[in-house]
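Researcher: Good morning. I'm working through a list of sequences from a screen, and I'd like to move beyond sequence-only analysis. For each chain I'm collecting a predicted structure so we can compare shapes side by side. This is the next one on the list. No need for commentary yet; just the structure.
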Amino acid sequence: MVEKFKQPNKSIEEKEVILQPPTNLVEFLYSQALSNESYEDVALALERAEALQNFRKKTSELPFGSFSEIVEGITNINQAPFSEETRKEYKEKFVSEMLNKVNRFSPRVADLYQAMLAEIIEQPYKPHFDITQEKMDEMKKSGDFYVLLSPNISWDIKLNRIESRLIDYLAGVRALDKREQNEMDDDVREWRQEQLKKAPSQPPSRKNETKPGVDPFERLKEGERVPAIWSIYPAWGGYYKEQSFSQWDSQRNVWTEEGYTYKDVETIPLSNNQDVKKGPIDITMTAKIVTGQWINLPIPYTHSLSKIEAGSKSWQAQQDQNGDLVIFVEGHGESQEVKVVLAPNPNKKFISSEPSKIKIPNMPAEFSEETNKKLEEIKNTKSGNISRASALMSYVKSRIKYLAPKDYTEAERYNSAYNNHSKGFAGAVDELKEGDCDVVNTYFAALCVKLNIPVRHCIGHSVKGKDEEGYSNINSGTGHGWSEVWNEVKKEWVRMDATPPGDTNLEEDNEKTNEESVAGDYNAEEIVCPTEEQLEALRKKLAELKEKLSYTKEERQLAEVASIELKEARQIVKEIHEAELTSLPSGELVIDALAKLFNSIVESRKATMLSYEGPVRKREGGESIEDIVRHKIGILSGETDPLSREKPTEEIKEEKILGGFDLYLIGDKSGSMERMSENEALWQIQRRAIYLILSSLYHFERNLERANLSKDNSLSVRTQVISFRGSNADEIDVDKPLSTNFNAQDKVRLWHSLTEQGGGNGDPEALSVIYEQIKKEAEELKKQGIKDNRLRLIITCSDGGYVDDDSAKMQMLAKMFYELKANVILVGLGLTESAANVPIVMNNPPYSRGGIVKNINNLPIVVAKEVVLEAIKLFPEKAREGANQIIKHSLDKFKNM
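Model: Good morning. Structure tokens for this chain:
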């Protein structure tokens, strides 16, 4: 089981949700995790998001996908940090949207679908089939219904319940519905076959009215075939609209239009899109039409006319005031193949040039008490045309049963009842509770009229599937009727289809997966369940945050400040930590040994001397008697503790001594540094040594700052790193400028620069850069009349030693440093035996000294030793005697390195 999501602060969250509902509820659910700093919380949120993705993937492979949508959508709503009132609103909105899909199912499947949705919003629902009630009772009693919708149950368990409790049941009742829909006597089957031979194969001429009524041939039975009137390629399903009607003639019970005005059609260019995953595609509709007459052109809501091809014949295309198209091909009644090319039009809308003149049709009808109560309820609880019409549509779909008469006799009996009922056409449907698409949508329109909602009737085709050649087809069995409702806010007509479950041409083939279905313009949009793309975007955000939080605070700060990837920051921090773990042979960390010495230096610079406060009494801290006469007089007068003693106190004073310590490190980046030592390149060991020393001295500097030594006598520690890739000026890199800092940019710059290897030596050239720098600083101090009291230590590393005339140059530079009188100590370190001439050249007192690091792995310790040898000079003269023990101890630690 999965525990509940942590609930955000409700007083804040609920207010935001009510004022601005989230467009993506799932991302809203995870918003707290996305703003979290807890690795564990984010990891759990990612686990949940991936579980939801897995649930979505597996349910997409199952039939009856809308049931899985209910489970996902309501679970998400139940997990959201809503108040009960807000949660109820979201559930009602979700259920209303999901009810739009109910006519996609066969009657018994739809019955359970509606029963579940009604149960979710705690509304009464009387199933049309006993088996539905039995299934609902079973699911509630077993707890399966709770499991499917609970916010606390894992998606895997929900998937298990869908597979084990729903799919088989739905497949069974779907098969039963299918069998009943196709059941007929042999004589009826033969009669239908004969009648179907008369089915039209060409589009009919335009008519300016339509009469609703049931027809036994409105839908084909399984296995029946009729000629295609229009062939559509590539296959594209959904609603193809032909004509709209705004007036109802209650005398003849027909839909009409008062009059028509036409204008030329504005064509649009092709999109050149043939990938349905990217949206609507260009399609071509082909038909053989009768020339010389106007015909209605059925067009999807998603498309507009791009062009027409009619061979050598001229043609016209016009659009009426309702936005419906008619075409005319020149001729005298002969047959002509026509290709109508349609392109996606994302901006297509059915609007009115004069919205203020839109009229509500006059549709007199008397309704039952139940229906009148529902009308009053919707009027009082819903606002706006679309909200009210949606509620009416849901009511119609749950109240009316789809009627497919078996023959003309049955059809005529119902049509007669509709047309001759004392309560009017719609009143008859309300009482009989049966009808097909155009009959029921006429009933729906009459209900809209009762609530003063502008509505109009539409005829066209509902298209689904494709034939063996990949075409979708419009034929005599695809005719369909639906409604459009006026959206008074957006000022446009909105499609609504109140057809109840049972219309086989609207039903999904629930034995197929989503991948096998034909793309098209079908009803209903997801309002709660996010798209696959949104869900994947959420997963990526959580995964990135999880990875980010898997890094330490130090790593994240380094990445942020230095604008580098977290992975690189981790490598840098890791190497610095490894450098700080470098230990002496005794096991003591080098950084600890340095810290002890540096801390002693800080304390030693606080020289102490006694100051006088007195006379005082003994109980006030007085020690030796200062005034013996005063003391005796006090005793003789009866005082047990006379005011006659002196009190020594400690007073902190700073001495005027060395005011700073500068360390200059010169790194070798010649090609030989690529050599390996115990599976590690020499340049890596060198970089680790530099990190160790810089880190230690930076901590020393921070301690000095915290010691609050006076400005005149303070001690500051600065560091600088340069390196050479060769002997040219552009091959000398300043890896860290001279400063008291060791910041994120320094660490990253060192990481990158000390990795880049060159080809040659540049020891003298790099040293010359530092010489010019110190010389310039010394001259500036002298110019300002400031005494230069800094101690400067230069450590230059060289692998391979000095070649050609480099030895002479190094010795000359050492002498030049000495003559600067800038307290410069120059140390040359040879890296491994290959640099054996380095100590020979650099051991040249008093100008410089040199050494060899025979075991390159000891380089960090050797560099630290050189720092210790000079750092002891930072002890004040008067404090050195007292610090002899710590000095000796520190030197002994590095003695044999």
